[in-house]
Task: structure prediction
Amino acid sequence: MKKIKILHIIKSLGRGGAEMLIPETIKLHDQSRFEFHVIYFLPWKDQMVERILEAGGKVTCLSSSNNIKLLQQYPKVVQYCEENDIDLIHCHLPWAGFLGRLVYSKTKIPSVYTEHNMQDRYHIITKTLNKLTYNSQSLALGVSDDVTKSINTYIKPKIPVKTLLNGVDTKAFQINQKKGMETRNSLGIPGDALVIGNVAVFRFQKRLVEWLQVFKTIEDKNPSVYGIIVGFGPLEEEVKAEVERLSLNEKVFFPGMQTEVKPYFSAMDIFMMSSSFEGLPIALLEAMSMECAIVSTDAGGIKEVIRDEQDGLVCKVDEWQKLSDLCQILIEKPRKLENYKKAARERVVKNFSLRKMVDELEVIYSDFVTK
Result:
């Protein structure tokens, strides 16, 4: 039986949520039925390349230094589709989506686009291009009900729009106490300390400066608390300047960009998010799978995952200062902390497994190709 050939198109293969989903889903797909190709454009953001290759995918970089040059690569993508007999294109994030729509207009190869963000949060240029081009594809998938609603509200597309919730490989993401202790030791964190962490790209919507301010309030009351923030990004200097200002140099650690984050999740007790907006963050699902207790704002799809006082503790986006009070509840009540760790994993195993997401994707892929 001829395999169905899927081409993923994405701007970069750094360690963002959308980027990480590609190797994780390829790994679980039925590769006796499907063959996976990936094209990306920023050669310096290639952390996921090796994982994709290990998972059985094929990777090509069409080097582009900016978004305009990325769009100008569309003839090469058309040629790649023809030479490799691609059956379906799956695009991720706006600029790859714009390019994919050019390819669709030229080839009519079925094209699926995964929307990871709310439309009102995009730059005016992105929003305008979305409105102009959104119908030049076969299907849009929102990663949460909020994201799907925003597509229908702001764009009003004529194509189908469905919600396909993000997922996590709950078998792979399981807490490892030994690795967690090794990570603490490597950073100089005492084994019996309580650790509050985050894994994020250092962008404004993550509000990591505010995260540090919340942490400072917590640490003032609990000197034995430590912090870990894994990641990097355009606001790294600003974030680290805030660490200096708050005198947290010896209390909050920055391991930088990490391809393997599970040892860091294993070192955390509480995963705290202060985001102003989100789609449905992969790092949140990973943290839950790794039995981190969740304390977060209710940004975007987070409120679809975390039921307050059942799976974790949440506050309104504009009331982020309350995160310190929520963490304090868990610090003062260790049994409650342990209960929320277990509840987080139970929630993600039952409702947000990557296996469920992959099964739904395979139905979508098959339906379009066999029409």
Notes: The mean pLDDT is 94. The domain at 4-167+353-369 is CATH 3.40.50.2000 (Rossmann fold). DSSP finds 16 helices and 13 strands in the chain.
